Amino acid sequence: MTRSTIASAAALALACLGALPCRAQGRLSEKAVVAQTVKSTTITVEYYRPVARGRTLFGDSGVVERGRIWALGANWATTLEVDHDIFVEGKPLPKGRYSLWALVDRDVWTLSFHRTWHLFHMARPDSTDEQLRLTVRPDSAAPTEILTFDFPEIQGGETTLRMRWGRLAIPLHLTMIAPPLKLLTDRAERARYLGHYDLEVKGGSGEGDTHVLLDVAEVSDTLHWRDTTNPFAPLRDFMLNPAGPDNEFTRALRSADGQYWTDADLAVVFQLVSGRAEGFELQRDGTVVSRAKRVH
Fold first, then answer.
1. Do the domain assignments include residue 82?
2. Burial 114-140 (b: 16+ CB within 10 A, else e)
3. 18 occurs within a structural domain
4. Residues 6 or more apart in contact with residue 296 via CB below 8 angstroms
5. Which of 65, 67, 27, 25 is nearest to 47 (CA)?
6. Residue 63, Cβ density class (10 Å: 0-12 exposed, 13-18 middle, ≥19 buried)
């Protein structure tokens, strides 16, 4: 064994014993992903989590200095992705993925959302690709050792995205924008689905299958599923929203403020014979969970 080989082996041994940083110890700021779905819209935050380790976090001599641009995390810029348009603090943010940056001050922070999202945390965002800018006031919070994003509140079509580190929190109020309800304006087109159906409901825990009689009815320019026997109120009467070219519909509900929300996980797929529906399948995430046939 040569001297260089011995030296290399010794260095590796010392590293893993703690005299030098060892790769197995992991990053000082580990990667995290948090996501929340609200009214068919999914918000996803991806970030690296610095640890306080007794340091002063915010201030003139802190880890995050006042008057400096910060990536709201370590290693790479924190990103926020939404799969539908939303409002952030009352301002519109189109669907997409964005890097988040903050100009930190004592009483007010200026947050900016940039379309270029894959940026190192020491980089500075280009003002020409800024999608949204807003000001927020930091709140006090219980001590948090590791930087954390979470969704502490969900109500109706709204949620709060919150960043916490040390004794400081930054809340962002997000409001979902309902996709427009698709209408069947042609009465002849609606008529092909109207009728009474016998829905076979698969039994669970060894119980036998049951059958439910329900109607597909017409209300103005919409189709309604009506099952008066269902004990769960939201499933007794709801709109069927056209969702695809193959006679596919999703469940749509109306919120208290008049907006419409669709349940994209549940699909009603009709089978047409000579232009008239003779039955349908209920599909959840593409899997058939029950079938129905027209009775008259």
1. yes
2. bbbbebebeeebeeeeebbeeebebee
3. no
4. 195, 196
5. 27
6. middle
Indicate the residue among 176, 201, 216 that finishes a domain.
176
Q: Is residue 7 part of a domain?
A: no
**Single-letter residue type at 286:** G
End-to-end CA distance of the chain: 89
Confidence (pLDDT) at 18: 37
Structural domain for 155, as ranges: 24-176
| Contact yes or no for 45/35 (Cβ under 8 A) | yes
Structure tokens at 155: 């109500």
The proportion of the chain whose per-residue pLDDT surpasses 90, expressed as a percent, equals: 58
| Whole-model pTM over 0.70 | no
Amino acid at residue number 230: N
Give tens-digit pLDDT for 213-255. 999 999 988 899 999 888 777 778 899 988 877 799 988 877 6
